[in-house]
């Protein structure tokens, strides 16, 4: 079996950090938190997201505050996301990987029913064995979702030759929990310094991530 890549979406294949930060600042305003710059966001961000809000607020958000934050974020993000595009070089990388006879899939913590039409809009759905978004409540970790995603892929994918490519420490933790490799990309939600604590390779471009995925499973 050849190397299989499980791609993350937001902040990895989908270059949406400006929209994410703007939507986050809209949400912060509902609880009186000052807006963050992109760099400040990347320095502070963590998963699960309620912990991120706790860090900024100085206390655990109440249930009603969390619901208001979540609703405000998603409302504004939905407005801004159509203006975002794929990360530079992503379409060519996806196409070349498929043409080489290798497999790939997409797993996102973005709501599944919202994710599917966005991926379709870019004309890349056919590159993936599966496209799975989040089901259930937002704000949680990826580990359980990745476990289900890998199970659904079945025996056609060898976990020993599977690599998760994402932009968050949570991507690496999910990969480790499922016994697969991970490569983290610096162009998304975390600074390089924060990614390096995960103990997996960190790269600055998706092309480097793909090259490293092949070497890791060689």
From TrEMBL:
Enzyme class: hydrolase
Domain of life: Bacteria
Enzyme Commission no: 3.-.-.-
GO terms for cellular component: cytosol
Pfam family of the protein (one): Hydrolase
GO BP annotations, alphabetical order: DNA repair
GO molecular function, a single term: phosphoglycolate phosphatase activity
Keywords: Hydrolase
Signal peptide: none
Name this protein carries in UniProt: HAD family hydrolase
């Amino acid at each position: 079996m050849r190397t299989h890549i499980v791609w993350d979406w937001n902040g990895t294949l989908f270059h949406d950090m400006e929209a994410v930060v703007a939507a986050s600042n809209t949400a912060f305003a509902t609880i009186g938190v000052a807006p963050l710059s992109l760099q400040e966001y990347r320095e502070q961000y963590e998963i699960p997201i309620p912990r991120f809000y706790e860090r900024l607020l100085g206390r655990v958000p109440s249930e009603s505050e969390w619901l208001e934050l979540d609703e405000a974020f998603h409302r504004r993000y939905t407005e801004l996301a159509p203006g975002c595009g794929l990360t530079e070089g992503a379409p060519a990388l996806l196409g070349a990987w498929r043409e080489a006879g290798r497999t790939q899939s997409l797993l996102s913590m973005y709501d599944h029913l919202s994710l599917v039409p966005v991926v379709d809009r870019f004309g890349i759905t056919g590159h993936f064995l599966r496209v799975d978004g989040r089901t259930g409540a937002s704000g949680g970790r990826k580990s359980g979702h990745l476990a289900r995603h890998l199970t659904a892929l079945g025996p056609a994918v060898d976990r020993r030759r599977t690599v998760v490519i994402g932009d968050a420490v949570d991507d690496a933790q999910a990969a480790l929990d499922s016994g697969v490799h991970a490569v983290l990309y610096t162009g998304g939600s975390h600074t390089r310094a924060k990614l390096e604590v995960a103990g997996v390779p960190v790269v600055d471009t998706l092309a480097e991530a793909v090259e490293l995925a092949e070497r890791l499973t060689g």
